[in-house]
């Protein structure tokens, strides 16, 4: 016998009749009419091929076959109710395993001693963070949420913009000591710039500068192009060249003097950060809590 919706409904109706002692009270418990209870039970009896209840005008009682059937299905019904209660609790409480697909640069930002704060705040939560250049098949890989820079393109996912991050131009003190500090963005054509390849177009991102005077596109030169932002940042810190990075990622490095922001008057360009979900229906609290954590981190 295969399990289907009508069979499960019939078993639920049978359980309600046994627990309440009558068709009318079972209907009240389930929110259906007495005749609806009777029809559902009749369908169940036809399905299993035996009479499950003896009915009189005053009472109902399980037949011998019905008693054996009910004793077999009752533990399963209790397990289903327990599973439903657990799922309901998970929707209201931050708990369980959360699998997150993250842009490598976001991962670098969060891995800098910040993950512990969300785990401390939610003892029932466990995190699995995947550093991926591509989103991939979230459903197939069991990923709950992805965090990505840039406007989502060509993905059938629910996207929520969670921040607009400022893009700035930086270099290490060692690089500037060796080459001199450029006084204006257009002077970058005389410097070694580290290019970051756009994973969508496979071409380097263009270098733009936004300030109070408007937008400026600058022709730059480069002898190094990388496919991930973490490598770009590492090379910039090592003095290889100039890089454009998100201010929130390097603000601690700038404050410590590990990097120098080159053009503070031309740092108005922003780039969106998105959270992506497979579905917006019944979003678990653990996903909401993680997205809130990202928002607080990038402020």
From TrEMBL:
Protein name, per record: LysR family transcriptional regulator
Gene3D superfamilies (alphabetical): 3.40.190.290, Winged helix-like DNA-binding domain superfamily/Winged helix DNA-binding domain
InterPro entries on file: LysR-type_TF_proteobact-type (IPR058163), LysR_HTH_N (IPR000847), LysR_subst-bd (IPR005119), WH-like_DNA-bd_sf (IPR036388), WH_DNA-bd_sf (IPR036390)
Residues annotated as domain HTH lysR-type: 13-63
GO MF, one annotated term: DNA binding
Family: Belongs to the LysR transcriptional regulatory family.
Pfam family, one: HTH_1
Transmembrane regions: none
């Amino acid at each position: 016998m295969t399990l289907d919706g009508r069979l499960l409904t019939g078993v639920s109706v049978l359980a309600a009749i046994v627990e309440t002692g009558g068709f009318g009270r079972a209907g009240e418990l389930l929110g259906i009419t007495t005749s609806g209870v009777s029809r559902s039970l009749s369908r169940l009896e036809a399905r299993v091929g035996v009479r499950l209840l003896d009915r009189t005008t005053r009472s109902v009682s399980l037949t011998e076959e019905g008693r054996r059937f009910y004793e077999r299905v009752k533990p399963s019904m209790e397990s289903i109710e327990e599973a439903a209660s657990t799922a309901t609790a998970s929707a209201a409480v931050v708990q369980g395993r959360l699998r997150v697909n993250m842009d490598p640069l976001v991962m670098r930002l969060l891995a800098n001693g910040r993950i512990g704060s969300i785990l401390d705040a939610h003892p029932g939560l466990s995190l699995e963070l995947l550093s991926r250049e591509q989103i991939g098949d979230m459903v197939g890989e069991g990923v709950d949420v992805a965090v990505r820079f840039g406007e989502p393109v060509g993905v059938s996912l629910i996207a929520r913009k969670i921040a607009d991050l400022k893009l700035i131009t930086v270099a290490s003190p060692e690089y500037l000591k060796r080459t001199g500090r450029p006084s204006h963005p257009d002077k970058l054509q005389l410097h070694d710039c580290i290019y970051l390849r756009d994973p969508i177009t496979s071409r380097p991102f263009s270098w733009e500068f936004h300030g109070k005077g408007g937008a400026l596109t600058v022709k730059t030169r480069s002898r190094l192009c990388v496919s991930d932002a973490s490598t770009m940042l590492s090379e910039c810190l090592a003095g290889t060249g100039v890089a454009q990075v998100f201010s929130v990622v390097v603000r601690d490095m700038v404050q410590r003097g590990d990097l120098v922001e080159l053009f503070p008057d031309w740092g108005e360009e922003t780039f969106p950060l998105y959270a992506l979900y497979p579905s917006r229906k019944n979003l678990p609290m653990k996903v909401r809590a993680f997205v809130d954590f990202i928002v607080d981190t990038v402020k």
